[in-house]
Structures are given as structure tokens and as C-alpha cells.
Fold these 2 entries.
Entry 1:
Amino acid sequence: SPNIQTADVVVLGGGPGGYVASIRAAQLGLTVTCIEADTTLGGTCVTVGCIPSKALLQSSEHYEWLRLHAAEHGIKVDGTAVDLPAMMARKTDVVAQNTKGIEFLFRKNKVTWAKGWGTLKPGNVVEVQAADGTITAWQGKSVILATGSVPVQLPFLPFDEQRVLSNVGALTIPEVPKHLIVVGGGVIGLELGSVWRRLGAKVTVVEYAPTILPGNDDDIVKEADRIFRKQGLEIHTGTKVTGADVRADGVTVHVEKNGAASSIEGDYVLVSVGRKPALRGVDPAALGLAMGQRGEILVDDQLRTNLPGVYAIGDVVGGKLLAHKAEEEGTIAAEVIAGKPVHMHYRTMPGVVYTWPEIATVGLTEQEVKASGRAYRVGKFPFSANGRARTMGETQGFVKFIVDKSTDEILGCHMLGPHVADNLAQVVLAMEYRGSAEDIAITVHSHPTLSETVKEAALSALGRAIHM
Ligand code: FAD
């Protein structure tokens, strides 16, 4: 077996969980080696997730705005057209800026990048096989598993990335589809479906659950569903995909709703029915690693697995599969390893859907609070009553608070509207301090800004919104 090199911390995976854990551990004076098989750092998020999807969402939003809204602003535009290769090249460039940025941060913090596929062996040793077959090995006083997740495949629709696409193929379709079928009406399906719809595709979303975005606040889901349909997305909820015929030039997807069978013809299908923990290089049975019901690595609130000195973070431990969750867990794991008395909590973990309008949420939904039996009040404020939103011509949606009836503590906040992804941050901060609606209501917000909708919704929870 190869010579074993050592480091204080060996991190398996260079996505948002692994690269942040690496940098934080290095900041704390530990020697760190991060093992990443891909040709770049950044993981799913930077290479085939958050960043390329947001690049395409931005470009396609500009295009749609020019076509549908420029005239309202007194701007005449003629001859808009999509230059797909240029749009894709920009996306690739944005991704490269991010991956190179992480490489720079690794050099700055003296994190070693061991390139290749790692396999965890007993004794906290990770064997690494480089692309040329060379094998090296790293032993860590601590090991952090950050191997991420992979898309769930439907047995009758295996990914070929030609006609049957995962997120990877859906970010690189070489033409605007005539008809893109999206199986799964969750975040990824709606975001990527929106991209291609804006660029000119007919897009049909098929969702098994009774609504799109299952698990979100009912009011938000209802309004989002209405808006997305108005934008032209065809949405079939409560609809099961039962089979498919894949041809060289297209796909027929067989569906069933309320017992009635039918089929949908498309030239591409995106399967976005969820993601599952990625365990390449980690053999739980051989290692004796404790696993959960959904194939995730079990950890405590300090990200420790049941194996001594082995931690796990990010998508591979389940929960909300979000980059900022992975980053926070990476930070906490590094700090725990460095001896700091910290732990994870998930009460204030935000979540965003980057459609337009955006959806941003934190904390409990109204139906969750109702089911818990806790007495609560709701505050709501629409963007149509906000001056800045009117100047922008972006008046769809609202901000909704759910607060404890007696203490006024913020239990949840759900937003649908322009730039709510950024607007949510103030509520997350307030909740981090266990703030109340009153705390936000007495805070001065600049006028005219979209952020005033949050103040007004908080005032509304207190029964005293000014502009409504
Ligand atoms: P990953 O990012 O999956 O990284 C794991 C890395 O480990 C990979 O680079 C992989 O190559 C490497 N690896 C795995 N096994 C080995 C091994 N044995 N040896 C060497 N290397 C290995 N989240 C958000 O918060 N906001 C968004 O807007 C958002 N948009 C998304 C859009 C799409 C289309 C998708 C698919 C996901 C999106 N996500 C978003 C989710 C986000 O990408 C993930 O939550 C995040 O990437 C998880 O980080 P991670 O470090 O746990 O794993």
C-alpha cells in the first residue's frame, strides 16, 4: 500500500460543505487536505447546481423582461432573440470565476487539494486514486465526509443526459426545447423549467404530490402555482408518472391522474424528483458507519458520526439539501475539531426558490404551527402596497409572518415577491436572536425599499400596518 501522508484534517469532497470546512479548519491553525475528484472545486453547487442555474435564471429573466416589460417602462426594443451559445458561455465563465476563486482561497489558506477519488479505509485513512491511476493515501487525526448527493433516477427513465436529463443535462441543453417535460415540481424542476420556458420552450411540470413545492406554506404555494401557470408553465399536480418511451428524438411520458391514464410527448424530459446521499468511496457496512432511514450518514449536533474522529456534513447527512446548510455544517465541524464548544441548530435555516417572483422562507409554516396547537397570529403585506415595488413594476406576491400569539416571537416567515431571497435575511437574523414581530416593526427601514414590506407585515401581525 502507498506511503501514508498525514494531516490534522482530511476532508472527502470539495463542495460547499467540504471546501468551507477545509478553509475554516485551516483558519484555526490545522493542517488540511481536501480530496476532490472533479477537475474543479466547488461541488454540485458551483459546477452543476446553484451557480450555473442562477446564471441561466438571470439571463433568461433579462430576456423575458425585455420582451414583456420593457414597453411598460417606455423602452422600445425590437428584435430580441436568444443567442444560446453566448448565454451558455457566460454561464460557464461565471462557474469558472467561482471554482478559480475557491482554488485561490485554498492556496491562501494553505489547504492541500488531493485530486482524485477517495476511499475511506479503517483508521481514518483515505486512499486517493488520481485520474492517471496513481494512488496516494492520507491519514487524518479527523476525517470529514462531505461527498454530497446525486439525483434520484426513475427506473423507467434512466438519465442519458441526451433526452432524459438530470440537473447536469438540463443546464446544457444544446437548443431551446420545443416541449420540455419536467417530472417533479420541486425547487430544481421549477427553477430549470422556468429558465427554458422563458427562452421559448413549452414546459409541462408533472408532480405526484397534490401541490407543487410540497412542504411549503399553503398560502405561498397557492399563489406561486397561480403565478407560474399565468406565466405559461403547464402544471399537473396529483399526477403519477408510470412509464416512458425514450427515442433518439424525444420522449413519451405516461402519466396517471385519478386513475385516468394519458401520455405527454416532449423532446426532452428533466427528472427532478429529489436527490439522495452520495456514498462513493464510503462503504457503511464495511466501515460500521451508522446510517439513517433515507441512506444518509447519521450525525449528532456536532456532526460526529459513530466512528471515532469521523465527521459528516452537507447533503450526505440529509435534512435540507442546501449549500448554506452544508457550509454551516462545515464550519461547525471544523470548529468542533478545533475544540470549540459549538453545535448546529436548524430552526433558522432559510430556503429559497429562485423563480421570478422568488420564494423565500424560514421557520415554521402556518399549517405546522396550527398542527402544533400553539396559539398564533398571522401578519401579511402585499408588494402591491409597496412604493418601491410599484416603481419597479414588480407588485406580485406578499410577505407573511406567523408569530406566537402571546409573546409575539417570530415562528416563521414566508415571502413571495421580487428579491425576497435577499429580503429574507433580516428575518433570519431577527429569528437568530429570537426576535419578535415588534422588534422588526420598530426597526427603521429605508424608504422606498422592498424591505419595508417586511416591516409592514410585522406591523400587520401586531394589527397596525400603516399602508394597508
Ligand atoms: P456537493 O456539492 O455535492 O459536493 C460533493 C463533492 O464531493 C463533489 O464535488 C464530488 O465530486 C466530491 N466527491 C464525492 N465523493 C467523492 C470521493 N469519494 N472522492 C473525491 N471526491 C468526491 N442549494 C442552495 O442553497 N441554493 C441554490 O440555489 C441551489 N441550487 C441548486 C440547483 C441545482 C440544479 C442543484 C442540483 C442543487 C442546488 N442546490 C442549491 C443544492 C446544493 O447544490 C447542495 O446542497 C450543495 O452542493 C451540497 O454541498 P455538499 O458539499 O454537501 O455536496
Note: Residues 12-18, 35-38, 43-45, 49-50, 53, 117-118, 146-149, 167, 188, 278, 280-281, 314-315, 321-324, 326, 354 surround flavin-adenine dinucleotide (CB under 6 Å).
Entry 2:
Amino acid sequence: MKIGIVLGTRPEIIKMSSIIDEIQHSENECILIHTGQHYDIEMSKQFFIDLNLPLPNYNIGIGSNTALQQISKIIVELEEILIKENIDIVLVQGDTNAVLAGALAANKLKIPVGHVEAGLRSFDKDMPEETNRILADNCSNLFFVPTDETAINLQNEGINHKMIHVTGNTIVDACQRNLDIAIEKSNVSSMIKYEKYITLTLHRAENVDNPERLKNIVNSLLNLKHNIVFPLHPHTRKSLENNNLYEKISSAKHIQITKPLGYLDFLYLLSHSQLILTDSGGVQEEAITLDIPCVTLRYNTERPETISAGGNVLAGTNEEEIRGNIEKILNDKEIYDSMVNAKNPYGDGTSSQKILNIIEKSFENNSVQIKESNEILDFKGYYIKEIAEDINVKEFENINKYHFIEQIFNNNVPELIEDETGLKGKIIIVKEFEKQI
Ligand code: UD1
Ligand code: UDP
């Protein structure tokens, strides 16, 4: 099988790395397509070196531009590449412009799409990523979701449960595969000025492109009585400079700004932090994986599991809220320890293996390829039903042909739908079709 991987930014390289590794150790062929959205060495090439990855077969080289310019150029270029390479399935990861463009291009060419980290929702359309992930999911055929909660988001949107696979998050694979290497190889500790420090990352458009929010965040940092190490994303550097904040923050004695770090250096830095302060998606996941308390500089998160597990809090961008949350965690051992001990909801580091197995099985049993319709199924409508008998999902759907369970409520709470999920005493929502003769 020829698996095309479309990626464009730092987190996609990291979260796809273990999947690329698995493909390389299998019978399948991997065609790597970089959109070129991230192009600085420390935002792109360094990750190929650190993670021991093959260089991309193609680099579309879109560079920095408006989202529409980026997305349209990727789609046009992908059309040619995907046809020429005769790709069997396209994999995209996460919610960047590469994900939307990759999923849409493949879908239009009738190439199946596997979305890694599907189903995340912040329910905040102010974020460019929210639209990307919703639209990419609409173009996808296989959904690799990190947790049960994310699977339920997709069930709520009417996605067939048979195509949703809870695999954990490949960030755990990346952390586990690289932490020991980072501890052995990274010499970042020699350049860190402080013994104890908070690691800070900041780059989300809704924070750094909003002068008011950016100023509030910077003020909260300037008035903090803890040391901070701040690997600076190029997007943020530009915004700080444009808002005359760069001088202020870079001259503060308790704040050390560095260039963006490679993965091994960054993993080392994170794993030795007292606390993590971030608006990044991937870093929220790494915090709970590495057992470091996390304060998130956002008003919502598409990673709510980190909050309900107790490892992450939302502080928004208000100066007092940010400082108050940090002080509370660092000054109260009980709170600190409970955050450290929060259970990681993202699996055991075998996500990439699971994802490749599911892709191979889906091709073997012909369930993912986009086929010509050979029968007409007439949509009858939805119905809701309380189930009294002792029956599971698979049995119900076998008995009731062309009735597909879309949601299960157990004591009024939606539940993950799997073939073996028992239905007795639960309420289900069903989508009904009828075959036309
Ligand atoms: C992008 C993703 C975001 C992801 C982040 C990961 C979208 C909409 N955004 O945001 O979801 O969390 O990557 O880091 O896809 N720049 C450089 N060098 C680079 C890349 C960017 O200087 O190698 C600067 C440019 O001035 C550019 C700005 O950063 O205009 C923003 O880059 P862009 O790729 O648009 O968005 P990110 O903030 O990186
Ligand atoms: N990261 C890194 N070096 C840095 C900052 C982040 O290697 O200087 C890694 C981090 O470990 C995580 C990923 O980049 O795996 C997160 O990417 P980012 O925060 O840019 O994007 P997001 O996850 O928010 O989309």
C-alpha cells in the first residue's frame, strides 16, 4: 500500500514521526509531502534530524501567506502529486492548513483520508484550527481519535461509529520514544540560566494576533516571581516586535528567551520544568504525559481530558488570573502533587502501531476504499428508542439492517459506541435507511 502523509508544521512532524517509523518497518511505502508552511530550520528540518526521519519526497514550499493562499496552493499541487504517485490513502494529522488542504484534495480525488487526532473540538470558531478540524473530519474516512470523549464528538456529528477508532495520541509515542534519547543527547541544560523554571510557549493566533491579549500575557509574565524559559515561536517574535513588547520581555532578568528548540532539547526542557505555561495543543498533551502541571493561556481547550484528569487548568489571558493560577499551584504542595499525579488520558504510546494496523485491516476487508454505489439506500429519518433486551450494538445493527446507531445515552450521558457495547437499559438515536429495489 502507498500511504501519502501530508504535513506542514512542527507539531505534525512530531506527531506523525512514529507513524512514519511504523510504515518504514512494514511492507508499505510512505510518500512524505511537506507543504512548507514551516520552513525555518528550527521549525522544520531540525525535527527530521532529531526524530531520524526521511526527508520529504515533496516540498510544496508554500511559505508564509494568508490561509486562503496557502490552502489553495497546497490543493492545486497535491492534485498532481497524489495522482502521479497513485496514493492509496492520505494521512493528515491535527488541525493546521495542511490538514484541511490535504483532506480536501484527497477527498476530491476519491482517495480515502485517515485523520490522525480527529474529533477534537474547542467549539470556538474564532480559532482557525477549529474550522480546519471540522472540515477535515467531513472529508475523512478513517478517524483516529485520542480518547472516548473525542469519539463522542464525532458520533454527535453523525459520523459512522465503525470508522471511529480510539487509538490514544501519537504524542505519547513521540515522548516515550525520545525522552531517554533527549536526556542522553541534549545539552540544552548548559544554556538554561536557572535551576528552577517554568517553560512557556505561546503562538496561537487568537492570542498573539490580538494586541490586548498579548499585552495582558506579557504583563502577567513581567510581574511573576518565578523564572521562565521561553522558546520563542517566529510568529510570536514578530507580534511582540510589532507591539513594542519584545524589548520589555527580553530585558526581564527572570525571563530567558531562546530560539525555537529542536524536539530533543525541548523535551529535556519540558521534563525538567516546575510548571508549563502554554497555549499550544501538543504541549498541553506533553505536560500530562510528562507529569508536569500545566496552566493553559486560553479560554477553552479541545483537550478537555487534561482538565478533567486534573493535570491542566485554563487561565485565559487575564493578568491576575494567570498569575493567580501559577502561584496557587506552585505554593500549595497538595494541589501541585495532585496535578503531577493526574492520569494521562492519551494512551500507552502504541497509537502509531494501532493506526497502521487499522489501516491495513481496513484495506484487507475493503471497508475504506471509496466505491461506486451499487445500491440505493433511501434515508427514512431518525428515531429514538429505549432498549429493554440484552443486546449489543453489533447484534442490533445485524437484526435491523440499514439502521445505524448514531448515539447511545447511558443515564442521559452519551457513551462511546463500539460493536460490543451493551444496549440494555440505554436510550439510542438511530439513523434509518431503506433499500430501494
Ligand atoms: C501554525 C498553525 C497552528 C499550529 C502552529 C504550530 C494554521 C492555521 N496554524 O501556526 O495551528 O499550532 O503552526 O506551530 O495552520 N514563520 C516564520 N518561520 C516559519 C514559519 C512561520 O517566520 O518557519 C512566521 C511568519 O511570519 C508567519 C507566522 O510565523 O507569517 C505565522 O506562521 P503560520 O504558519 O501562518 O502560523 P503558525 O502561527 O505557525
Ligand atoms: N516544540 C518543540 N520546540 C519548541 C516548542 C515546541 O519541539 O521550541 C514541540 C512540542 O514538544 C510539541 C510541539 O512542538 O510536540 C507543539 O507544537 P506547537 O506548540 O508549535 O503547535 P500546536 O501543538 O499548538 O499545534
Note: Residues 67-85 form the longest helix (19 residues).
